[in-house]
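Onboarding guide, step 5: your first structure request.
Type a short instruction followed by the sequence, for example:

Predict the 3D structure of this protein.
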Amino acid sequence: MNREDFTEQIRQELPRLRKFLLAACSGNRDEADDVAQEALLKAYTAAVHDGAFHDGTNFSAWLFRITYNSLLSHQRKRARIGVHTGMEELQDVAASINSDDAFRYQHLYYAIEGLTVTERTAVLLFYMEDRPIREIAQLMDTHEGTVKSLLSRGREHLRRLLK
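The system replies with structure tokens like these:
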């Protein structure tokens, strides 16, 4: 894949990728941008310089796999150094978004923050990205049954957290 093809593919996928990461990062735009930047750099290097992307492969799924791995890596790094997003910080983040949107989605971001990274990823990919379970399993490098279980647990946790 050459640079121009990569740029065109990214241009098509970027709005969905940013939407996914914003939700996965509980509305924290800075964190979502950090993960996106890391994922896009890895994808560019792999696709253009290393030739790791092959024609006929689903670019969107390939990119989201890299993004998911970058998100996991970012979350592990934050946990290792003891960074945790508290409720006050989430309120500040939500308030810094468009004020109408912040108010409308604030409770949802709080609930999503309460999910594990794997539950959050499965729920967001399934419900927000409309990705099939088979593709989510491939993206997360797990079995379809595990994805179904993550979706079930995620829905139950969200149900409890949103009450």
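Each response can be followed by summary notes, for example: The chain has one domain: 3-162.
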